[in-house]
Amino acid sequence: MGGGDLLTAKELKPHLLHPDRFVRDAVVEYFKDSWSQDLDLVPLVLEGVRRYGAHEARAALAACQRFRVTERSLDDVLTVLSEIEDDVTAFHLNAVIGRAPADLVIRREARILDAPNLFPEVAERVHRRREFSTWPAEKLWGELEELAGRSRDRYVGEIDHGYADDLIDTLSGHAEPDIARVCEMLAADAASGWLEIFVIELAGARRIREAIPPLVDKFRIDTDYMLECAARALARIGDPSAARLIHSVFSSEDWNFRNYASGVLAGIKSEVSEEALLALLRTERDSGIRVWLCLGLCQQFSPRGLPVVLEEIERGYDQGAASLEEEVLPVAELLGVELPEAEAWRARAEEERARFESQELDLNALASLVESDGDESDPFAESPTSYRRTSPKVGRNAPCPCGSGRKFKKCCGSPKA
Description:
By secondary structure, the protein is mainly alpha-helical. The chain has helices at 9-12, 21-33, 41-52, 58-63, 71-83, 87-98, 102-107, 109-114, 120-132, 137-150, 161-171, 179-188, 194-205, 212-217, 224-237, 240-249, 255-267, 271-281, 287-299, 305-315, 324-335, 342-358, 363-371.
């Protein structure tokens, strides 16, 4: 049991339409983790909405803002947006439109602005992306620096993340600042506060492979929001050399480093990551980190990892971190492995999901996610230069306010992107 190669993206992609919701959600997590640029993903998610309903496809819809859209798929998003009636689905579709490439937005501007259920914030972003597309790189970079200065000492919920994302997304198509300058700022901490965050995000958006070493070094700094950004950037770059580097130092690093770096190993889909996860589980003693490593093997759809995760379940594990039983079910399903416990595990997972979905949606928390562009980082996290919070934090074991039916820590509150 559990031998063989990793399932490939090509093999997994059709399962975005699998009849089992747990399988669909696990497969979309695979592509979300790695910031896949496959142009088939958004059409497949929308087909899933048509087949199973928007409620059943919420996890997939929540991931779509990370996927690339074409002119045709953007038209399909607008069509679905005009037909839906619930706020949660409208939120996710608006997030896709808000992150669409500027050239598509410009060509479809009239239809976008006339679309029913379009959020005012997204209409504003459409205008802004059109304007930013006319700016030279030097002006975009200068405005990003000025935004960082204006945001000094402000908390995560106090800055306009949509404005920053639009600048970064537009700037990512230019070579200013060049690769050497980006790496210099990351390595020497020449950027600080919000500029450091913005440079990290720019490195991820441009998929700068040379930025991997200084990004991994960030995990040695104890500030959650920046580490979440660094983890996303590394997963977005997606180069196996990051997994090799993390593996080489992992065991000698502190808990904070290992906590965030384990998420990067889950996000970079590669046999290098699989080997690192398997090797690190042989020596890791912290129960919570072991769960994240097991979770990474599940998110890699690792045949070699399946028996390892099952052994971890049998021994007993930290169930406050994640439900390994729920995570292992779709892996076993797609690998063709029958589990004697599958029926009982599925019943518990369905009961847990039903409990979450029966709870009243936190519209205030959802509004906070809208304001922060639906970013997967915690919308109530600290300022990059301070640790004082300005509002209550969503509990990581509470239902995600996006309405996906998953725990907040496994959905929009996950630092494991």
